[in-house]
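Protocol step 4 of 6: structure prediction from sequence.
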Amino acid sequence: MTQPFDPRFGNRRMSLRTRVAGLAAVCVGSTVALVSLAGFFTVHTSLYDQLDTTLLQRADSLRSTLATAEQLGGIPAGFFSAADIRVGLLDSNGRYAVGGDLAMGPQELAVARGEVSQSLRTDRARDLRVVAVPAEPGTALVVAQGLGATRATLSRLSLVFTLVGGAGVLLAAAAGTAVAQGGLRPVQRLTEATERIARTGDLKPIAISGDDELARLTGSFNSMLSALAESQERQRRLVADAGHELRTPLTSLRTNLELLAASDRPDAPSLSEQDRKEISDDVRAQVEELSTLVGDLVELAREDAPQVVHEPVELAEVVERALARAARRAPGVHFEVTLTPWGLLGDANALERAVLNLLDNAAKWSPAAATVTVRLAATDRGTAVVEVADAGPGIAEADLPYIFERFYRSSAARTLPGSGLGLAIVAQAAARHGGTVQASRSPAGGTLMTLELPGHHPHHTRR
């Protein structure tokens, strides 16, 4: 169960820096301990093997030169003490003829009786290493050496290993702390940046140092900040532009309504039926303009939403539905259509709205009884183009770079109905589906809008 955070004691969990330093110390400490133990047991075994070899060599040398009790008894005791050994001669009955201060064990007795060729053991009571070899028949030559020097050497070695291991653990902890501080510094900067963003809303990017994974993480975070800043800027511009576009029709609508309301007062001059009808028509047109603008704003908000629909779409059917709607809106315009089947993954509603906006734009600029040419055809680039060409006056060269921006309206279009959002919706729909939209001059001298979208190759043609 997770412990709650208490501001009086801080976070109960260790910081990442502490965990890294602790992990380094534990890993190095475990490694040093294993190496030290292996080294200690290796030296321990080597020292005892060397001691046993030396004792056996001394026993063989004494057996070949001093094999009788008389010979051993004639040697002064100080001679063996100076060599740090004790020597005794044990008979098969378990009695020492020489060296009575040596303890007898079953191993030495077995050698004296000829049951084994030699024996080695440790006399823990006297701290001796004891070796026995056969001497003259029925006796065993026993040689012992103290273990004090060997044990002292092993004690010093264990102390050295302990000190070296402790120093290694401390150095590992210090190195782990230094590595953690240096390696986690970008993480700390990233944490401070996120806290600053949450506190102030400032989307200023973070400085990147190095080229490691943390630098890549910082770069990705900066990309996210840039996208967030761009989204905020788009929202700010949308709100500002929408407010500007809404202000004019709302002001005009309020003026007309106030005029109608004032004409109904008893002391006010009355309006003629013609004037009242013109004002009513003006109010109706302004309401329709506001409805269109609000619908376009809702569409733009939906297009900016993060969810993207990916469903199979038959583009020719989308164009046909858009043509049916456009024909109802502009009954005086004739549409000449050539469609080739084309499939893609996308949002059918968004694509239909985009094509409808192109058709509405062409119908708006076409003269009465004009023909608008609509063509859906495949290209050799693995895409299909929807071309809408009108016979209107065309788009001025100065306006071409801006016609797909939100709320942009050329000087010639300001007197016509519209909000300046239709072509922006087309551009957004094209971008969402991995396509493009372009404007150019049509063969008839009007405007040619080209919407290009990726998808599947066609199989047959419909007219």
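Step 5 (inspection) to follow. The chain has a mean pLDDT of 78.
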